[in-house]
Specification:
With 469 residues, the chain is of the alpha+beta class. It contains 16 helices and 14 strands. The protein binds iron/sulfur cluster (2 copies).
Length: 469
């Protein structure tokens, strides 16, 4: 963290105008952005036929408290999946940080993704870095009003569409959008849309890198998660500075041979790595709090090295050990711990989703009265049985008893019961048995719900107990 407090020339300007750059990390960032945008904006519009629930691939239904994600239906009782998912997200973040620093910020964070898109719009309308700086300095005229105005108009449109798309997840999108524009939705939908629109516009359009540098708490504690083995974006000072420092490629310092003869390093002090940096820092000052590990300065420097015909990698993902000429250890106690926690969380989540019971239920004995003695001497217990069909198919069940010999089940007029797809039912079931004595007065047993029709094949067991005077 040697250069943590240093400021580059870029950070002294009020607005940072990064220069565009081509390269593998820029391509990777663009690819992730396109995928993330496609997922976020398109998911609510993908049709998905269901027997019950919205015909929409991804939908969060507040009324029935169910989340639909393609074939997976998450009920309110499955909320522990959300806890497991949050735990997984946290350990993946720690794991990635231990391996490659603040890399989540540079490629996957919403703030980065939306700021990148806003900057792309700005660049298309106002031009690249130099043109934007010049436009900022210009007096207000028709050209500046048009360019600045249309940039902000498009930003507001994207911010609005972001807010609206979020709302479309909470219902049937084609119907919601029609009702939105005919002012037929509850006020919560409009408040959510406009709050998200305002925060997106402010965070991605106005505050941009300031969110990463001054607001995001992750920047503050990332340093405790990385060590000398973490591969972070680094400038190789030995190669770049040599023994006599960096220097422009002026006469006598054009080739590597000439430079090394004078002790000058490979950094030609072009400043390209600083100009492309979205947070405006100089990677040559060492690891800094503001660095989001986006790798754009690597692309910039690689382009310069390519032009000079020198090896790439003056700026690269490298560990402190690597820069000191030592070996990088990937398998440390820290990375192994995070890796195992990640695998554990993935295993738990996948296991619990794949082992999700299609039918769930409970059987509660009604305790007032505890039992009824019938005229023929038999004892009757009553039970409230709740069952939920979590599948999208109809299921029919016979009810029998396991663990209470010679008991009979009385369901009144019905012999079996039917559960429609995604339906919950409450049944009153009576169980009759001869009087029990001694230590057999309270006998645990199980209701056995045996499927007789439909696609559910496994019987369902609901434990309870029979009480006798
Ligand atoms: S220093 Fe490099 S990796 Fe860090 S934010 Fe700037 S461009 Fe991205
Ligand atoms: S882009 Fe490379 S050569 Fe140019 S100033 Fe940065 S580190 Fe030096």
């Amino acid at each position: 963290m040697s250069g943590c407090q240093k400021k580059s020339a870029n950070t002294t300007t009020a607005v940072i105008h990064p220069r565009s750059v081509k390269g593998r990390f820029r391509n990777m960032k663009t690819m992730i952005m396109v995928l993330a945008y496609a997922a976020f904006f398109i998911f609510p519009w993908i049709p998905f036929a269901r027997n019950v629930g919205p015909d929409q691939a991804v939908s969060f239904d507040l009324v029935t408290r169910k989340f639909y994600i393609f074939h997976v239906v998450i009920h309110a009782q499955d909320i522990f999946w959300l806890a497991a998912l949050l735990f997984l997200a946290a350990v993946v973040l720690f794991f990635a940080t231990a391996l490659a620093g603040r890399v989540f910020c540079g490629y996957f964070c919403f703030q980065t993704l939306w700021t990148d898109a806003f900057r792309w719009i700005e660049q298309k309308i106002q031009g690249d870095r130099v043109a934007r700086i010049r436009l900022d300095r210009d007096k207000w005229n028709a050209n500046k009003i048009f360019r600045k105005g249309s940039t902000h108009a498009l930003w507001l449109l994207l911010a609005f569409w972001t807010g609206l798309s979020f709302v479309l997840y909470w219902g049937y999108a084609p119907e919601l959008i029609q009702r939105f524009f005919t002012l037929d939705l509850p006020s919560a939908a409009y408040i959510t849309t406009f709050v998200l629109m305002a925060t997106t516009y402010l965070a991605a359009g106005i505050m941009r890198e300031n969110v990463c540098m001054h607001i995001c708490p992750y920047a503050r504690f990332q340093s405790v998660m990385i060590d000398h083995n973490s591969k972070i974006v680094s400038y190789d000072p030995k190669r770049g500075e040599g023994t006599a420092g960096r220097a422009l490629p002026k006469k006598g310092l054009k080739t590597q041979e000439e430079r090394s003869a004078k002790g000058v390093g490979d950094c030609v002090d072009c400043g390209f790595c600083v100009q492309v940096c979205p947070t405006g820092i100089d990677i040559r000052d060492g690891l800094q709090l503001q660095c989001i590990q986006c790798g754009l300065c690597i692309d910039a420097c690689d382009n310069i090295m390519d032009k000079r015909g020198w090896d790439r990698g003056l700026v690269r993902y490298a560990s402190e050990n690597e820069l000191d000429g030592k070996k990088t250890k990937f398998f440390t106690l820290r990375t192994l711990g995070y890796g195992l926690a990640t695998l554990g969380a993935i295993g738990f989540l996948l296991g619990s989703i794949s082992m999700k019971k299609p039918i769930e239920g409970t059987a509660r004995q009604i305790r007032s009265p505890l039992y009824i003695m019938l005229s023929d001497g038999q004892i009757q217990n009553r039970y409230e049985v709740k069952v939920q069909n979590k599948t999208q198919k109809l299921a029919v069940f016979d009810v029998t008893i396991d663990g209470l010999n010679n008991a009979t089940v009385d369901m009144g007029q019905i012999k079996n019961f039917t559960l429609k797809p995604d339906e919950s039912q409450k049944l009153l079931i009576k169980v009759l048995h001869e009087r029990l004595t001694g230590e057999y007065k309270d006998i645990p047993f199980r209701f056995v719900l045996t499927p007789t029709k439909g696609e559910v094949t496994e019987p369902v067991y609901l434990p309870s107990q029979f009480i006798s005077p």
